[in-house]
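Re: [help] complex structure
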Amino acid sequence: MIKLPSEPFKVTYVDDNDPFVSNAVKERKHFEPCWCGSGKKYKKCHMLREQEKPYSIGKIQNLQGKIFWKKRGCMHPSASPEVCRGKVIDSHTIQRKGPLERIINTTNHVMHFEANSTDGGVNVAEIGWRKASVFPGFCSYHDSTLFDPIEQGGFSGEHEHCVLHAFRNICNEYYRKKALIESFEFQRTCLDRGLNLDRQISTQNSCIKSIAGQNKSLDEMSNIRNKFEAAIAQDNYDAFESKCYFFKGRLDVVSSSVFQCEFDFLGNKLIDMWDLSLDADMLSHSVVDTDDGGAIVFVWLKGAKDANTVIDSFDNLPDVEKCDIFIQYCFVNCENTFFSEQWWTGLSQKQQALIQQYANTLYYEGGKYSANKDKLVNWVII
Ligand SMILES: [Zn+2]
Ligand SMILES: [Zn+2]
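Output below.
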């Protein structure tokens, strides 16, 4: 079974004078709207919540998993019942034939970190390469036609190919963000079963704040996704910038995702993510394979100031440090990071503990990245 991504859930405390609290404690009639903002009548929502039997963690996870991974239709710019062919299939955000194939073991498994439900941390686990890095994003026809140029192999850094990699990352993140919001909405309906009113209020308030934050980044993602769609429809990719760092060496770690540019590689804070009036820039990264190694590919929107700052801070790192720091960046920020068993077992215990620590980081709170003396990968920038 595919594990849910671990996502930080920010607990926010509500002041007693907050209108949300005064509204919640106010007496209300059965048929009045509930204080929690669900839109339901009070009697169908929170009236008897304190007496409701709490769900087990297993039940919550099971229901949430179904909501998270449900198919949400083909995400191709020209998707429609007339054009789409075949079912919505699991698309690989990291190409299977290529980077993933490079890191499989003898039983066709790759390694990654997966959330463990007992202590909320992460553990190294293996996963079949067919299941690694997938999301149900496109119908089979669109998945193969859209990404055909990058599935043929022989990556040479062509701008259009870089943008296609980034588009797939955006679609994956968009899908996950939407799924996450829907699972938070689900949590609102059951996380506070059996709790007293005080704790119901703080649970609901935390859920509402988290959903608002996620909706904000979904909007930002939607804006950038529209720009990708326009580029693909017009076959003109000038709205984007791409930068590739080719390296020689064994491709042991692969990763791809899109992040909001909150910090640069020097640890400078670029934007306050909790300020919902600000738009964060997006930066996509992918690791692709080449004949004698691979390439780190960054894509961002032309003119995006903070994304430029992040790229400049990476570009200014000494070449000998770039790959080690990039690997740290992947483990710290990105669940969509996979690695070979051979590489993992070849690391020292100290290195394994360090990587485990990176992967356990729920909130990256800034700080300058610095390269390890014993480099994590043998990649040499060319
Ligand atoms: Zn309610
Ligand atoms: Zn389609």
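The chain is about 40% helix and 15% strand.
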